[in-house]
Amino acid sequence: MRRTRPRDSATGSEGDDGNGSVSPTDRANIPTDLLRTFVAICELGSFTKAAHLFGLTQPAVSAHMRRLETIVGSDLIEKNTAGVKLTNCGGEVLRQARRILSINDQIVSCGGQQPNLQVIRLGIPNLFAQSKLKQIVDECRGKIGKSRLQIRCENSGNLLSSVRSGYLDLAFAMGSEEQLKHARRSWSEDLVWARAPDFAWEPNDPVPLISSPNVLLPDRTAMDALDQAGRRYDIVFTAFDMMARRAAAASGLGYLVLLRSMVPPPLVAEAPGVLPALPSATMGIVAREDLDTTGLAPLIDAFEAVLTAPARAS
Fold first, then answer.
1. Structural domain spans, the chain
2. 119-187+282-313, what's its fold?
3. What pTM was estimated for this model as a whole?
4. Among the listed residues 260, 264, 276, 201, the one whose alpha carbon sits nearest the alpha carbon of residue 234
């Protein structure tokens, strides 16, 4: 639960005890080192990892966060067993902190000093990691100058959430038209029922489906299509790992819904008419709300070119 922190009325700056006291002047000026600590905790998901990054002790990192929260007047992070979770206020502060640090580094560079290298954070769905990751790295590295590249593989839903929260700068994701209405680039591709070449199934039996426990967009699309056609189905295999789901399909356990361009050997697409037709999937490249997409246009172009090449070649 979000708590509002009272702003300390002490007149001195933060003491050695790290109690977060701030002076009246401090309340109107947030030191960039506190913002860097906060951003690092969010990116790394750990106070301990942030401490290692800056060569600080964990109590020092905690003191930075207490002081920042005192200045802001609200809790920014909710610590739990799964890591760190931003409060609503924390999400907004994270977005603004990135902007402030970017401007700070640009000012520093004007004087000839070398600022901290910018980190460009990309996200791609797990489905594309095996076939696309190397191409993405090869093509995108040359489009970011001296910046560093970080890539996260997740399911599309989590990638979209990470962009909205400011954890990622750019992400390629599959989603609904509503989720991708603000995408910088978008396109569509056919979904197909993928199966093993020797897969045997009685048409009067329930359709055996292979799914993620999260019931991702392709899974929901398959279930909706079968429901609308009045066809029964059973979930015969579930796994978070896409490689495991592909292996289950290759073993003849059932159907796995994939993009047509992403059906790997030995899997084949089911012939038209055997099962209900599936709608096309909408895909797109989404950007953080305050990201300078003009400056990153070459990167976005390279990102899109790698991702859409198979679909356009078919």
1. 24-110, 119-187+282-313, 191-279
2. D-Maltodextrin-Binding Protein; domain 2 (3.40.190)
3. 0.67
4. 201
